[in-house]
Design goal:
Blueprint: E1 13-16, H1 26-40, E2 45-49, E3 58-61, E4 64-68, H2 76-85, H3 87-92, E5 99-103, H4 109-118, E6 122-126, H5 135-138, H6 144-147, H7 149-153, E7 156-159, H8 162-170, E8 178-180, H9 196-206, E9 214-218, H10 227-240, E10 245-249, H11 256-268, E11 275-279, H12 284-290, E12 293-296, H13 305-312, E13 317-320, E14 337-339, H14 344-356, H15 358-376, H16 378-400
Parallel strand pairs: 1-2, 1-5, 2-4, 5-6, 6-7, 7-8, 9-10, 9-12, 10-11, 12-13, 13-14
Antiparallel strand pairs: 3-4
Helix pairs in contact: 1-16, 9-12, 10-14, 15-16
């Protein structure tokens, strides 16, 4: 059953996660970006995930083999069923992978991890978000102590932020298994336009006025993303900049009640003309290229994909503070601005100052782009994963001798 790669060979990897594109999730988008990049450098990768309604059991997404098994509903029973449903596929394909990489610390990952260990595989667990599946918060959940067993069964745990790393250490799990590897961003897809004429043409195509100040936020429109705080700040901004436009680019279907509240607020405050909800788009990179300023008001994150994408696009970014998360991405005053008190008035003040100071906008945008290239670009992050997979394979080989 053991198919650990021979010395000098690249280990093959099975990515296991509950939601994968085109189903929307940050973890899924990260898994897709990572998997494509690994395959590009010779690592064999395939994905095992849940089905959507009427989705094929086997498909290729951007060249990546994806096996879809069963569905995951909101009920706990559905999760238990899916945790067992994936086992036959993982066993049948056991000779096609050396490492099982589980995205997220969930009940459904436990049977898979045990099967992989029994088959002689190495197991990697990625923690996808603080206050979501980090050890300290899991220990407070009803069944969290069972989920935490994954940290002991895994050969390596991936932390995407210093806050998650601290949670892991405080919870008492082995330091030797902890690996700090950030989320990655596709710096070729998310890149600034170099010529002003290009931006003007893009704005025309997107239906945006050439001279209008465009402030943008991207991601799923829901309460946890702090859109209500941004709306309160925007009401203040409009007093001084009545013609500026706020664009909320992202899926509006996940929390319909919150979106209904948001639309009612826009109507009541007479902001409908200056706030646009696009819904889901496939060309988010173009909206970022067409914008002037990015605002990130989220209440909680792991390591925010949307913020990295905006920085890679060369936008000056203003983020509300999430302790030990935002500081992993932005150095305040150098490559972005952090609003530490998270107050709408403070956020509004920073937006207005950013609009006025074009030179500062340009400087922050250039350094934001540089940081993503140096620390979060796909080649940089992929090499860290390649080194990890290779090290685990070598450890397994040495143990078997």
């Amino acid at each position: 059953m053991n198919s650990i790669a021979s010395e000098g060979e690249q280990p093959n990897v099975c990515m296991l996660l509950g939601r994968f594109p085109p189903i929307l999730s940050g973890a899924g988008l990260q898994a897709l970006t990572l998997s494509k990049a690994l395959r590009a450098v010779g690592v064999g990768v395939f994905v095992v995930t849940a089905r959507r309604d009427n989705s094929p059991r086997m498909e290729k997404i951007q060249g990546l083999p994806v096996h879809r098994i069963g569905t995951i509903r909101r009920s706990r029973l559905s999760v238990y069923r899916w945790s067992l449903a994936v086992l036959p596929t993982l066993f049948r394909k056991r000779r096609e992978y050396d490492v099982l990489h589980i995205h997220g610390v969930n009940i459904w990952g436990m049977p898979a991890a045990l099967l992989a260990r029994w088959c002689g595989k190495r197991v990697v667990i990625k923690v996808t978000g603080y206050a979501q599946d980090d050890p300290l918060h899991l220990q407070k959940e009803k069944f969290g102590k069972y989920k935490c067993r994954l940290f002991r069964w895994a050969d390596a745990t991936i932390s995407i932020s210093s806050l998650i790393s601290n949670s892991y250490r405080v919870a008492g799990f082995p330091e030797s298994k902890l690996n700090s590897i950030p989320n990655t961003v596709d710096i070729e897809r998310f890149a600034p336009l170099l010529e002003s004429d290009e931006k003007n043409r893009l704005r025309l195509r997107l239906g945006l006025e050439r001279e209008k100040v465009v402030v943008i936020n991207t991601g799923i429109v829901r309460w946890a993303k702090g859109i209500d705080i941004l709306l309160a700040a925007w009401e203040i901004v409009q007093v001084d900049l009545p013609d500026a436009l706020l664009m909320l680019v992202g899926n509006c279907d996940e929390e319909p009640e919150f979106v209904d509240w948001l639309k009612a607020e826009l109507k009541e405050k007479k902001l409908e003309r200056n706030v646009v909800l696009t819904g889901h788009v496939d060309n988010v990179e173009e909206y970022l290229q067409a914008a002037d300023i990015y605002v990130f008001p989220s209440r909680r994150e792991g390591l925010p994909n949307a913020l990295l994408e905006a920085m890679a696009s060369g936008l000056p970014c203003i983020a509300l503070d999430i302790p030990n998360i935002i500081e992993d991405v932005i150095t305040h005053g150098k490559d972005g601005v952090v609003v530490y008190d998270r107050e709408p008035a403070s956020l509004a003040r920073e937006i207005l100052q950013m609009v006025i100071d074009r030179s500062r906008r340009n400087s922050l945008g250039v350094l934001a782009r540089k940081k993503t290239v140096d620390f979060f670009s796909t080649p940089v992050v992929v090499q860290q994963y390649r080194d990890l997979y290779q090290r685990l394979s070598l450890q397994k080989r040495a143990k078997d001798l």
